[in-house]
Specification:
Order of helices and strands: HEHHEHHEHEHEHEEHEEHEHH
Structural class: alpha/beta
Number of helices: 12
Distance between the termini: 35 Å
Number of strands: 10
Bound molecules: the ligand O=c1ccn([C@@H]2O[C@H](COP(=O)(O)O)[C@@H](O)[C@H]2O)c(=O)[nH]1
Strand content: 5-15%
Helix content: 40-55%
Shape: globular
C-alpha cells in the first residue's frame, strides 16, 4: 500500500477521528489459554484475527508485538503479515513493535523489511532502539520519511530496570567531558539523561514538520511509580508523538499520564495490551474494553485543553 501522506498527518487524523489510544496485540500463551485457544499457530491466528476484527475499525492505532509471532517461527511471522495487511486495510494505523536497532548497514535491511512499500512486513510505523547510537537509525529514519511512515524510538521505557541506563547523564552537547551524574532528569549543569538526549535527537528530526513529525519517542507511563522521583523530560520542542506503554497491566493510570505529561498530553498516545485483551475472546467485549479505555484517555486530554 503506497502512503501518499506523511505519517505525522496520518496519525493526527487517525487520533482525531478515533481517539487517543493504541491497543497492543500481544498473543501471550497465557492469554491464548484464557481465550480457550490452543497454544500453536492456529490459536495464534485465531487470537490475532479476532483482535483485528474487534478493533481495527474503531481504534486509532494497533500495535502487534512481533516477539509473540516470531515465537512460532515462519508460520507465526506469516500470521503477523496477515495482521498487518488486514488491520491497515480496515483503516487503523499499524505500529509494529519490533524494537529493532543495529549498525547502520543492518538497519538498512530492517528499513527494507518494515518501512518500505511492497515488503510483506511493512507497517505504518515501527519501534526502534537507539542504544547502538541514535545515528545508527538513519536508514530507518530516511526510509520512513520517504514512504510516509513513522518510527517510535525508545527513550525511557516502562520496565523497572530501565532507569540505570536511560537515566544516566551525558553531556548536553557531545562530544565533551562526561559530567558527574547529579540528577536523573532533563539537562542541567551536570548534563542531561540519555533518555532526554534521545528526545532531543528526535526533536531535531521533526523540526518544521506539520502537523507533527514522523519520529516519535517511547516514554513509559509507569515512570516514577516505583518510588523515587519521576524523571522530568523537556518535551516542548519534540513535535512528535509520544507512545506511552505501561498503561493498564503494568499499573499506570490516567492520573500517571497527567502527572508525567501535563501540557504535552495532546501528543501522548497511551498503549495498552493485556488490560484490554483479557476481555476477549468475545469481539464486542474486547471492543467495549478498548473504547472504555480510549474514552478515559480522551476525557483526560479534553480536561487539559
Ligand atoms: O517501554 C516499553 C516499550 C514497549 N512495551 C511493549 O508494550 C506492550 C505492553 O503490554 P501490556 O500488556 O500493556 O503491559 C508490550 O508489547 C511491551 O513489549 C512496553 O511495555 N514498555
Amino acid at each position: 500500500m503506497v502512503n501518499p501522506r506523511p505519517f505525522g498527518a496520518r496519525l493526527t487524523e487517525a487520533v482525531a477521528a478515533r481517539g487517543p489510544l493504541c491497543v497492543g496485540i500481544d498473543p501471550h500463551p497465557g492469554l491464548l489459554r484464557d481465550w480457550g485457544l490452543s497454544v500453536d499457530v492456529a490459536g495464534l491466528e485465531r487470537f490475532a484475527m479476532t483482535c483485528v476484527a474487534a478493533l481495527a475499525e474503531d481504534i486509532a492505532v494497533l500495535k502487534p508485538q512481533s516477539a509473540f509471532f516470531e515465537a512460532f517461527g515462519s508460520a507465526g511471522v506469516a500470521v503477523l503479515e496477515r495482521v498487518i495487511a488486514e488491520a491497515r486495510q480496515a483503516g487503523t494505523v499499524v505500529l509494529l513493535d519490533a524494537k529493532r536497532g543495529d549498525i547502520g548497514s543492518t538497519m538498512a535491511a530492517y528499513a527494507s523489511a518494515y518501512l518500505t512499500d511492497g515488503s510483506p512486513l511493512a507497517a505504518d510505523a515501527v519501534t526502534l532502539s537507539p542504544y547502538l547510537g541514535f545515528g545508527s537509525l538513519e536508514p530507518a529514519l530516511t526510509a520512513a520519511r520517504a514512504s510516509g511512515r513513522g518510527v517510535f524510538v525508545l527513550a525511557a521505557t516502562s520496565n523497572p530496570e530501565a532507569g540505570e541506563l536511560q537515566g544516566a547523564l551525558v553531556p548536553a552537547d557531545p562530544p565533551g567531558p562526561v559530567a558527574a551524574p547529579t540528577s536523573p532528569g532533563r539537562a542541567g549543569p551536570a548534563g542531561r539523561s540519555v533518555a532526554q538526549s534521545v528526545v532531543a535527537a528526535a526533536a531535531a528530526r521533526n523540526a518544521g514538520l506539520t502537523p507533527l513529525g514522523d519520529v516519535g519517542v517511547v516514554i513509559g507511563a509507569t515512570l516514577g511509580r516505583n518510588g523515587g522521583d519521576a524523571p522530568e523530560f523537556d518535551l516542548t520542542g519534540l513535535n512528535g508523538p509520544i507512545l506511552a506503554p505501561g498503561f493498564g497491566a503494568q499499573g499506570a493510570t490516567v492520573a500517571d499520564l497527567a502527572r508525567l505529561f501535563g501540557d504535552n498530553l495532546r501528543h501522548v498516545l497511551p498503549t495498552s495490551s493485556r488490560d484490554v485483551l483479557r476481555h476477549g475472546p468475545n469481539e464486542a467485549a474486547l471492543r467495549d474494553a478498548a473504547l472504555r479505555t480510549r474514552d478515559e484517555v480522551s476525557a483526560l486530554r479534553e480536561g487539559h485543553g
